Amino acid sequence: MKQRTLGTNGPSIGAVGLGCMSFSDVYGVADDDESVATVHRALDLGMNHLDTSDMYGAGHSEEVVGRAIKGRRDDVFLATKFLTRYGPNANRSNWMTPESGRYQDTSPEWVPQACDASLKRLGIDVIDLYYMHRKLPQVEIEDTVGAMSALVAAGKVRYLGLSEVSPETLRRAHAVHPIAAVQVEYSLFSRDPEDELLDTCRDLGVALVAYSPYGRGILTGTVSRDTLRDAGDFRSVAAPRYTEENIDQNLKLVEAVKAVAAEAGCSPAQVALAWVLAQGDDILPIPGTRRAKYVEENAAATEVRLTAQQIATLLDAIPRDAVAGERYGEAGMKAVNL
């Protein structure tokens, strides 16, 4: 696995990481043993950047990751996030529903409690990269990051990160404590970071960690209407780009990715990932999967080199305004770029 540096002063880690949200039944029921085997395969390939959150499965993803890295802590650069608090009846089945008793909290009082809970679920003593999962309008970023910086001083966290914040928020946070990474959705289908955020990250020496580099799977070329009928797959009900009125137009756009893949001799998924990697050495994509075969495919994408003509073909075929639907529903879009 090729290596990339996390920001200006961070460690060298795998150029492609592993997103672990799918360990929490979000794309249908996950098999924990399979998820553990997937992490093991990723580590064997040098894909040492693992990304999870206390939200995924109401902590279940963290527990699975903790099980997977037991005895291999030195092989891992581990990132997790805080934001969502749950009631006593929350579990991996209801974590996205009101029945879980979920609510959001980024107060300085909650930050150390959330960190301790994540450390316990993960079975580790220190988190390598700790993110605020979203900014809440009612909590000043200086207060939250101040509490996060105390975790660094206490030796519980090594680096701080933010997710889906505005350039202004990033600058304010960075003035309190150095921010190592900003996590944001970035793919051929989601180009918002190119407006100003990416430039701000580069100005401050902050890495951009790109989640959903496959547009939640659609850019892999494996998604169809039949895919969305799978029980428990949230995309057909919660992801606007997968809804009945938008899916056909978006699937047509993927044909260009398939054509470039055929020319390059690789899979559409590898083309989509190679495109993100080609946007700069300071960008670290974290495609999510719970299957070892896709980990292998993602690792091999680091060897794919798209030509200038192939990149131009992709951008001509998929201009920013061509994608139908927002990346989140109305409530989700209100929570980003704050």
UniProtKB/TrEMBL annotation:
Gene Ontology terms, MF aspect: oxidoreductase activity
Domain NADP-dependent oxidoreductase, first and last residues per copy: 16-314
GO cellular component: cytoplasm
Keyword annotations: Oxidoreductase
Pfam families in the record: Aldo_ket_red
KW Oxidoreductase (keyword) present: yes
Protein name according to UniProt: Oxidoreductase
